[in-house]
Amino acid sequence: MAVEERAWREFFEGGSAEAEERSFQAYARRMRDVQSAHARASGSAVAHRTLHAKTVVGVICAELAFAADLPDELNVGAFVAGARLNVAVRLSNAAGVPRADTEPDLRGAALKVALPGGGVHDLLMTSYPVSHVRDAKQFVAVAEIGAGLRALALPRMVAAVGLRETLRIVGNLRRASRRSESLALESYWSRGAILWGDAGPVRFRLSPVDPAPAVPAEGFDGLKVEFRERLARGPVRFTLSVQRFVSEERTPIEDGAVEWDAPWTPVATLTVPGPEVLDDERVHGMAFSPWNRPAGFRPLGNLNRARRAVYAASAAGWQK
User: Fold this and answer.
1) CA dist., res. 317 & res. 35, Å (int)
2) 33 near 157, Cβ under 8 Å?
3) Under a CB-based contact definition with an 8 Å cutoff, are residues 92 and 54 in contact?
4) How far is residue 290 from each of residues 14, 120, 161, 183, 194, measured CA to CA in Å?
5) What are the φ and ψ backbone dihedral angles of 311, each rounded to 5 degrees?
6) What is the mean pLDDT of residues 256-285?
7) Residue 227, number of CB atoms within 10 A of its CB
């Protein structure tokens, strides 16, 4: 593919990185208010994460093994052909308050990859290919509406983003929020892009390798029970794949609501070896952010750039 076809750039809210950062700080304060609202709604004396409040599965010692035939341009930093890296894994429900695993919801996967010589690289994903919102401004508006009275949600959303965007957002939320039979059978998408060294922008995905049927467990912690029982029968594996940027039309950087039109390239296998590596409480205490990353990798797009300020504010609230 010609070099000019892979030209990409970022567009900053307000016309500059400085103006955008001022907006992000305001969004972070508003999301802290959402966090407090969720705590009041749950009857908790302490704030949870603003979103993904419930850790369903916590893994302290999984392995991320990179393919021996990893394409040369994707060999960046510690992510190189044949590398085997230790990973902490958090699988979660997306709601801002802990609730039963049997309820319809979006699911999340967060990896904290330990790097040789120190440092970590966090990779965050959710169980739907695209975000329900296009940018951080929409995200905060929808989060505030979701933390308020449900009876007023639709008219408030129309007032905030317009009728057409409201219909699109509500449709995406309904498709993404569903019951899950097993977190081991879900696929998880980054939805936003990151810079992958000289390979340029990519989106990434985890997809199940061994889709053995689930044996659903009911109750508040049904998905936790199912995952633990599955691990007792053998390892759980996922394939990590990436999509590379092609063009702004097919693979936009700034719009998180658009699914990329580009092929997937498998790059590594994530293996959770057995129930002995489960430690939900320890992993629940970890803070994950796409901005925990080494040189050569950088979150891209408005939603990802906003996460630096918003995640830091959320972590300060629930880790007190």
Assistant:
1) 8
2) no
3) yes
4) 23, 10, 27, 21, 9
5) -65, -40
6) 96
7) 25
pTM of the model: 0.88
Place of tokens 């996967």: 109
Q: What is the 3 state secondary structure string of 32-54?
A: HHHHHHHHHHHCCCCCCCCCCCE
Write down the pLDDT at residue 166: 94
Tell me: the pLDDT tens digits for 228-268? 999 999 999 999 999 999 999 999 999 999 999 999 999 99
Low-confidence winner among 113-122, 190-199, 304-313 (lowest mean pLDDT): 304-313
In angstroms, the CA 224 to CA 53 distance is 15
Domain spanning 12-132+180-318, CATH class: mainly beta
192 contacts 136 by C-beta, under 8 angstroms: no
Indicate the burial class of 65 (C-beta count within 10 angstroms; 0-12, 13-18, 19 or more): middle
pLDDT digits (tens, 9 = 90+) for 160-217: 999 999 999 999 999 999 999 999 999 999 999 999 999 999 999 999 998 788 887 8
Query: Which of 96, 122, 95, 92 shows the shortest CA–CA distance to 109?
Result: 92
Q: What angle do CA 140, 142, 146 make, to 5 degrees?
A: 115
Buried b vs exposed e over 73-91: b needs ≥16 C-beta within 10 Å? ebbbbbbeeebebebbbbb
Domain range list for the chain: 12-132+180-318
